[in-house]
Write a structure and sequence with these properties.
Blueprint: E1 3-7, E2 10-13, E3 18-25, E4 32-39, E5 46-51, E6 58-60, E7 68-73, E8 78-83, E9 92-100, H1 107-110, E10 118-119, E11 123-128
Parallel strand pairs: 2-11
Antiparallel strand pairs: 1-3, 3-8, 4-5, 4-9, 5-6, 7-8, 9-10, 9-11
Length: 129
C-alpha cells in the first residue's frame, strides 16, 4: 500500500521560512518524479515545484522561483520544499505528488496533475502579515 505523507506546515509571518517534507512508502521512490502542488481557498490547484526521479532536473513556478527550492533524498524516500521569503499569497494547502515514468521538457508540460499517480493529504501553510 502506497503512502504519501506531508509534514512541516504551519503559521509563519511574512518574510519567514518553512521547510516541508514528504515521506513515502510502498513505492520505488527513485523511479518517481515528485512534485509540490498547492491550493488556496477559492482557487484552482497550482503546480509549485517539480523534480525528476534522479533529482538532476527541477522546475519552479514563476510565482515561487528564487524563493522556494525543491529537493529530494532518495536514500530516505523523502521530498522537501524549502520556502523562504514567504508571502501572504503563499497561504494554501500544500500537496506532495508522485508520478511514475514521467518527465517533460518544460514546466508547462510537467505541470499536469493527471499524470501524478499518488497524492498526500496535504499540509496547511499560513502566512500572516
Amino acid at each position: 500500500q502506497v503512502q504519501v505523507v506531508e509534514s512541516g506546515g504551519g503559521l509563519v509571518q511574512a518574510g519567514g521560512s518553512l521547510k516541508l517534507s514528504c515521506t513515502t512508502s510502498g513505492l520505488i521512490f527513485d523511479a518517481y518524479t515528485m512534485a509540490w502542488f498547492r491550493q488556496a481557498p477559492g482557487k484552482e490547484r497550482e503546480g509549485v515545484s517539480f523534480i525528476s526521479a534522479s533529482g538532476a532536473r527541477r522546475y519552479h513556478a514563476d510565482s515561487v522561483r528564487g524563493r522556494f527550492t525543491i529537493s529530494r533524498d532518495n536514500s530516505k524516500n523523502t521530498l522537501y520544499l524549502q520556502m523562504n521569503s514567504l508571502k501572504r499569497e503563499d497561504t494554501a494547502i500544500y500537496y506532495c505528488a508522485a508520478a511514475r515514468d514521467f518527465w517533460a521538457s518544460s514546466l508547462a508540460r510537467v505541470n499536469d496533475p493527471s499524470r501524478f499517480n499518488y497524492w498526500g493529504q496535504g499540509t496547511q501553510v499560513t502566512v500572516s502579515s
